[in-house]
Structure to design on (158 residues):
């Protein structure tokens, strides 16, 4: 099963998931909440807790969103696992993309279930304009989604 399908990429899921959880644990233990620690003129390490989804969407919705996003993440991870199982191993780009999206979803799912919020700590800005803080799970999801889009166009051109 693993030898002929994209499930061979589950090692990448575990690697990215471990890195994400380790960096969030480290950030949560060494950074004081909400205080920026400048690293570059456009980048700070700032510990923030996100009770919503991307860009704090629904963060102030009263608590139901925690379980809604938990169900969405579990469902999406199941869909991604089946997709990986149905994807031939030789489709390396697609398998890697699916693994990155799954790792990110599981990293944020872990936070949401265990803490009730997602730990964010990477903060980019230009002067006084700040992009919402994020974490490495979000980076993995974004990279994987970009790769899926590229793969879609590559397949369409064939």
């Amino acid at each position: 099963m693993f030898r002929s399908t994209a499930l061979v990429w589950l090692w990448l899921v575990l690697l990215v998931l471990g890195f994400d959880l380790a960096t969030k644990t480290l950030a949560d233990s060494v950074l004081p909440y909400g205080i920026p620690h400048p690293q570059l003129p456009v980048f700070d390490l700032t510990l923030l807790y996100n009770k919503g989804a991307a860009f704090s969407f629904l963060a102030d919705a009263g608590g139901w969103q925690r379980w809604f996003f938990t169900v969405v993440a579990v469902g999406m991870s199941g869909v991604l696992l089946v997709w990986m199982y149905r994807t031939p191993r030789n489709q390396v780009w697609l398998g890697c993309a699916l693994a990155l999206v799954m790792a990110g979803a599981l990293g944020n799912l872990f936070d949401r279930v265990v803490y009730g919020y997602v730990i964010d700590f990477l903060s980019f800005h230009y002067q006084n304009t700040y992009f919402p803080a994020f974490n490495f799970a979000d980076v993995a999801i974004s990279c994987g989604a970009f790769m899926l889009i590229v793969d879609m166009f590559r397949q369409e051109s064939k």
Notes: The chain has a mean pLDDT of 90. Residues 6-34+44-157 form one domain. The CA atoms of residues 13 and 103 lie 5 Å apart. The chain has one domain: 6-34+44-157.
